[in-house]
Write a structure and sequence with these properties.
By secondary structure, this protein is mainly alpha-helical. The chain is built from eleven helices and no strands. The chain is globular.
């Protein structure tokens, strides 16, 4: 199983290298991955350590859950590789969407669909009404979750993803776990969605289908 994990890690790193952003963050990501592989082949137990650390983030015990942890890591790496290829984006971006979504309690397929619908994976996207970055946050909304955050800071990949996914998580909680209503509120604003619901109208404007890629009924 470790051999499969290492192969998947190598595949992900290869995608990072082939579409490498020359920024310091991307260089650090690539070098870290290469050092991980080097340590493994020198006999260190880096693979086990990586899996255990990932498991700790997911709340899975070790060593009793070591096999489960390895399976989780394999699934994670496969998703990163597949989404990098599917959406034509660098693997480091696919990795951050995956990991930040998981950390914020958002299903990865929802996270990828949201970013695609909002910005087409362009971290410097700005809408006509002033929404910014990968998840198209309005600065006023972003400041509710991170006081004092600037428009320029919202161009930062990780900052934007973290706040955007946290906002969606808050909306999911507001609508008692109803993902479709939460997505509509993300797109149209919760006040407008609530107004339409009170009037007995369907707030669905096609955004749910755009994000999830299929027909979904929210009621």
């Amino acid at each position: 199983m470790q051999a499969l994990i290492l192969k998947l890690q190598a595949d992900v790193e290869a995608r990072k290298q082939s579409r490498l952003d020359i920024s310091a963050t991307a260089r650090v990501t690539l070098v870290g991955g290469l050092l991980f592989l080097a340590a493994f082949f020198l006999g260190a137990k880096s693979a086990d350590s990586s899996v255990v650390q990932w498991g700790e983030r997911l709340g899975v015990a070790a060593p009793e859950g070591a096999i489960e942890l390895q399976q989780l890591e394999i699934t994670r790496l496969k998703r990163i590789h597949e989404n990098s290829a599917r959406f034509g984006i660098p693997a480091d971006l696919a990795e951050r969407i995956e990991d930040i979504a998981q950390a914020e309690g958002i299903e990865p397929h929802v996270a990828f669909g949201l970013v695609r619908a909002e910005s087409e994976f362009n971290r410097r996207a700005v809408s006509p009404v002033g929404a910014v970055g990968l998840t198209q946050l309005m600065p006023s909304t972003a400041r509710y979750f991170k006081r004092g955050v600037s428009r320029e800071a919202l161009m930062d990949r990780d900052t934007n993803l973290r706040i955007g996914f946290r906002y969606l998580r808050t909306l999911i909680e507001k609508y008692n776990g109803n993902l479709e209503l939460a997505l509509l509120a993300y797109n149209r604003g919760p006040d407008r969605v609530d107004q339409l619901l009170r009037a007995g109208q369907d707030p669905n404007n096609g955004y749910v289908e755009m994000v999830l890629g299929k027909r979904n009924k929210h009621r």
